[in-house]
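Lecture notes, part 5. Sequence design as translation. It can be helpful to think of inverse folding as translation between two languages: the language of shapes and the language of residues. The source text, in structure tokens, appears below.
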């Protein structure tokens, strides 16, 4: 993928939100297709985070959490639940979001999201 200012900005946001360790592990595969795939993911998903606009990182984080839960993408939900200290989303807001998820996406999605949040909080408290 062509190195653009937008891609550089998206990479910066991805690192700020997910952390260097996560991004380094995700981008470690040097195979050309893997590099291209990571650039595509970064430009697409993290490019929207890099946009100037009315949504703050906190707002974007809450939206991603709600959407990944609604889609049943608990691996992604868990990743983003772990980033909330860097996005400004509080534990109280996550707790309230879980009620919204259960009400609008169904109890199974809300319960799965709750288990993921509990796991993330346990890891955070253990310093992992």
């Amino acid at each position: 993928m062509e190195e653009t200012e937008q891609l550089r900005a998206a990479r910066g946001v991805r690192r700020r939100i997910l952390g260097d360790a996560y991004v380094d592990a995700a981008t470690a595969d040097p195979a050309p297709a893997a590099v291209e795939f990571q650039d595509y993911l970064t430009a697409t998903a993290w490019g929207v985070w890099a946009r100037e606009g009315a949504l703050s990182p906190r707002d974007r984080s809450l939206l991603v959490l709600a959407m990944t839960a609604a889609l049943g993408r608990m691996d992604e939900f868990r990743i983003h639940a772990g980033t909330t200290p860097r996005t400004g989303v509080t534990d109280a807001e996550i707790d309230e979001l879980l009620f919204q998820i259960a009400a609008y996406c169904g109890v199974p999605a809300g319960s799965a999201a709750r288990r993921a949040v509990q796991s993330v909080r346990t890891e955070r408290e253990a310093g992992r």
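The translated text above is only one of many valid answers, since several sequences can fold into similar shapes. The chain has two domains: 1-52, 55-128.
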